[in-house]
Amino acid sequence: RTERLLYRKIVLPNETIAISFLSSLRIRSQRCSDFTRGAVQSLCIEGDVLLSTAADILSLCSGTTNLALWFAPSDFDGTTNPLLQPLNDLPLTSLSLSISLIFRHTQFVSLSAFKAFSTVTRLEILNAWVLWNSTVGLENLHGLTHLCLHIHTRRTKPELVASILTSSHLQVVVFRISEDIDTVQTFLESNSLSDSRIVLASQVPTAWGEFGGDDMSLWKGADQVVDWRRASTQGVSFYPTNTL
After folding, report:
1. Rounded Cα distance, 192 and 98, in Å
2. What is the pLDDT of residue 242?
3. For a Cys-Cys bond, which of 120, 122, 186, 202 suits 241, CB 3.0-4.6 Å?
4. What distances in angstroms separate CA 37 from CA 4, 74, 97, 186, 196, one per listed residue?
């Protein structure tokens, strides 16, 4: 039981540690095939981890529900993406990632085409260019209740934001910003995009130690802001960086 607790939340900051962890998983899977399947519930892969290493880890950690893919691999071979199949096999409910990881070497241009997103309720996309020219099919992910994207007043298209906000199933929409908050609020208001579900947050991603915690700090905090606003009938609110 103690060993399972140690594996419950895993952070892999680089390829060296990821390889070591993968070796450990393989040894334990030989002793007990069910161990790796259910032990790792929250997993964060970042730094210089290779795509092939990440794919192997996801294949073994097939019971992971909370996943962050915060890495930019250098080993794409130009024809296939080994990450897609193990990612699609996970029973994910929370996902944070750069979608460039999955759109490379695939004909799909919509997230709804990937099975991995069918069970996700809380999604954070790290790419700043989402909502510049496309929603990448976000409005078709009907299971989403919480969504986090980047917004920039000179690049983001208001009509794409409006398309996202028409989704009645979304309870919270966090927009990470790099501009002055007043500038962003003016942008939203002038384009009739003010919405009680919107929370504005620092562009700096939350630490995985908080994001991957049991209380899911990013989402829990955003929920609190939205609940407060509904109770006090206020408008868009900035989410302070020191509480993310």
Report:
1. 29
2. 37
3. 202
4. 11, 27, 22, 48, 39
Q: What is the pTM of this model?
A: 0.89
Length of the chain: 244
221's CB contacts (< 8 A; 6+ apart) are: 239, 243, 244
Q: Is the pLDDT of residue 106 over 80?
A: no
Q: Are 156 and 128 in contact (CB under 8 A)?
A: no
How large is the C-alpha radius of gyration of the chain?
19
- As a whole number of angstroms, the longest Cα–Cα distance in the chain is 61
Distances (CA, A) of 45 to 21, 55, 68, 181: 11, 11, 6, 31
Among 112, 2, 69, which residue's Cα sits nearest to residue 212?
Answer: 69
Q: What is the CA angle 45-50-53, rounded to 5?
A: 75
Hunting for tokens 């919270």 — which residue is that? 172
Phi then psi dihedrals of residue 86, to 5 deg: -65, -30
Mean pLDDT estimate for the chain:
86
- The residue assigned the tokens 């934001």 is 161
* Residue 177 β-bridge partners: 202
**pLDDT reading at 37 higher than 90:** no
Q: Which two tokens stand for residue 183?
A: 């500038």
Main-chain dihedrals φ then ψ at residue 171, nearest 5 degrees: -95, -30
